[in-house]
């Protein structure tokens, strides 16, 4: 996969399987196949496109979606505070458009696996297309309500972005490895509180909840300041670890 | 590697190569080798230890270090905003005690590689011991001042935690893949500003700087509130992407 | 002064000196004069208006202005960290539309005084109208560049919202009472740094800089969360106290 | 009242009614009476003390207290978002050590009045001493449980720092002027939520809740950064306005 950047700094993600059409003209599949990061290719109308290595963010930005996407800042802390990485087994619900699935997929590698549950047919189909098109091999999609149980066992992380994560705490406890993590992403205080209580009931350990705030700094006329606008809140992220 | 949790909730990370001594008694290497996550083993004094899968955070918490460690929150956003993952090639400086090296190592996998530069002999040695003991195979340590040049090429990410990252921007530009990222971690505004200017000179694109703030929520007597204490600042993290 | 609230929750601030015209009809001056907080009065078209005591925020919201207004959060910390109150003497520059002037005026009372400097004729005129209409007696307006010197002496607070506050540090030092405060409001790091250095040169004490962040909580469907949107930055507020 | 600053930058607040004893020696009452801001006076052991105008923060820092004090940042937003000022009438509970009482007292002036309720004898006595010693004339102390009713009427602000502010919403509604404000200061989400609901029942308008975060910037070796330590949370401050 490659990312093309046009003269207006607009980005496109292409795989070179077929000709690529934009309002600045057509790029032949062949030209894409022959290019590599660093190349500059031209549309049939003569407009230049810079070619760079595509990353998962480029792809998520342009892929089909009909729902909100969890921000990288929030997935970042899930990855580092649980310590997941290559070779690990992750269970996720709901899939949504598949953005988080792809992010996890990136850090789990070919030796790892992510099983993603989605009970809404529409999102299941969208995510399926998105994930297939991105071409990763370590994702297993499940068209299923995770509240009916988790099929996998010996799991390193169960990650939940759904309205009622407390209803999956028991299933998660069963599915998890000792030392593995349950993590839920919930916008509301009440969701977080109810989930934490359930985690305590099931004897999870190291229960903590973080909120992650990102501030962007800007430089204008050679002077530095934080940006005026900022996202005030996305969600409370609750972590709980299974111990004997 | 396994993590043991004693009755006081203190954690130990063990590899079972030899007997393990604590103030609660000795655990035989053999007992460690025969245990697995979920086991409970006893010291020769009869104290119980719960066994769980060790993760990179357990290990970093107990490993040798004589310097500050970059917090998971900050490495989290580096991972997700650059989109690095399995199979990628990362260059890092300075190594410090090796904590960040190990975190990157986790998400790069066996197909990926991290080259970590440290010019201070003392830290180089500490990190070497820490990394070897953790048993990862994708780390190449370089006892070298990264300001003298980056040996690698076609790199996905150059990550710098050093006082003068601006002195490495040129080397990073050369070493990076098109589409790869330069990221610097700097506590002071002036460092960030100087580095960003240098990135602009070298025609990097998508330059942005984030500060990541983590708030922990607590539940006391069944009532929720953010914790009184909070880390106010660690560093400004500047991102810049190489484009043609 | 009274605040009227119409059926759409839109607010108006009226003084009853003349008939008041809105798109919901006219209210006679007489009706306003005969009303008091708690009254409900009708326009000639029969629309009801609730009457409440007007406060300075109601007035600032509707008054004429062609510039950004400093937010209450920022003036709040100026008031409480300097400890100013009734009977104190404050010098301020620039006046802008007069919003901050009115806020200070409220807490200084009839025994106190605020001297506000504005060198831009247009803003001087706007502020003059705003301040006169609000009807306070403790404001002295100066159409003058404060960098040319401060006329007053024995001042409790010099508050500066201007691009180059460092150019007024010397004048402020002379004008201030021992124990009085110099405070500057600056969006950029560089302004703050330069001003602090100047304060150090003039031997000010208790120099500190705050940034004030306000998060609003919301309740939706009986569940609590911080709002998604938040103002990320307004200004760095630097305090310095004159000591012998 | 004057503030003395010794050679170690330690502060004392004195009224000159009697000799002042410190570990650096004694200062005669007469010497204090004859000094003014800007003076330098000596103890009988020859140590110098700088004299400055005392402010309410100097006094609060040294006064007797056996409880936590609400921080200036939080009182700041109460003052500016309600628009209270000289001549206003405020009701407060509980008094605690009287710090907030003194802050409000400063901005209400001689024409204003603050009625402060405290039901715990011990705190009532401490606050009484603190307030008398500070010498303000606009404070009326009430040794009384505010949940038994508010004696005053036509009040501009009812400010509550107590565990169950919802129990005072009805009394506050009765006591307030139309256009006046109910404000409660509560560390926990649940307190805030319960109070807001009660405010909705009593038909309060303009209900909103803020959390105020202060970040301090520091300069080290000529470089700027936010401080490492920060107060993560004090309280949720809920505002509600009485309308007809």
From TrEMBL, chains A, B, C, D:
Keywords linked to the UniProt accession: Methyltransferase, S-adenosyl-L-methionine, Transferase, tRNA processing
Superkingdom of origin organism: Archaea
GO biological process, alphabetically ordered: tRNA methylation
GO molecular function, one term: tRNA (adenine(58)-N1)-methyltransferase activity
The tRNA (adenine(58)-N(1))-methyltransferase catalytic subunit TRM61 C-terminal domain, residue ranges: 62-222
GO terms under cellular component: tRNA (m1A) methyltransferase complex
Classification via Pfam families: GCD14 (PF08704)
Keyword Methyltransferase belongs to the record: yes
Protein residues bound to S-adenosyl-L-methionine: 118, 145, 161
Protein name per UniProt: tRNA (Adenine-N(1)-)-methyltransferase
Organism for this UniProt entry: Methanothermus fervidus (strain ATCC 43054 / DSM 2088 / JCM 10308 / V24 S)
């Amino acid at each position: 996969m490659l990312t093309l950047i046009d003269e207006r700094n607009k980005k496109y993600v292409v795989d070179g399987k077929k000709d690529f059409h934009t309002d600045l003209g057509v790029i032949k599949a062949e030209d894409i196949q022959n290019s590599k990061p660093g190349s500059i290719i031209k549309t049939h109308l003569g407009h230049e496109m810079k070619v760079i290595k595509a990353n998962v963010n480029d792809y998520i930005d342009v892929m089909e979606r009909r729902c909100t996407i969890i921000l990288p800042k929030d997935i970042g802390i899930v990855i580092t505070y649980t310590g997941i990485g290559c070779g690990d087994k992750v269970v996720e619900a709901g899939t949504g458009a598949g953005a988080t699935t792809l992010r996890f997929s990136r850090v789990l590698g070919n030796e790892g696996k992510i099983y993603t549950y989605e009970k809404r047919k529409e999102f299941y189909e969208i995510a399926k297309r998105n994930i297939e098109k991105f071409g990763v091999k370590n994702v297993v999609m499940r068209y299923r309500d995770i509240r009916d149980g988790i099929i996998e066992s010996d799991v390193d992380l169960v990650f939940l972005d759904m309205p009622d994560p407390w209803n999956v705490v028991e299933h998660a406890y069963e599915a998890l490895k000792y030392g593995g993590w349950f993590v839920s992403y919930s916008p509301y205080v009440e969701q977080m509180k109810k989930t934490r209580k359930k985690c305590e009931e099931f004897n999870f350990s190291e229960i903590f909840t973080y909120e992650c705030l990102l501030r962007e700094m800007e430089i204008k006329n050679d002077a530095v300041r934080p940006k005026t606008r900022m996202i005030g809140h996305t969600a409370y992220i609750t972590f709980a670890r299974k111990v004997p």
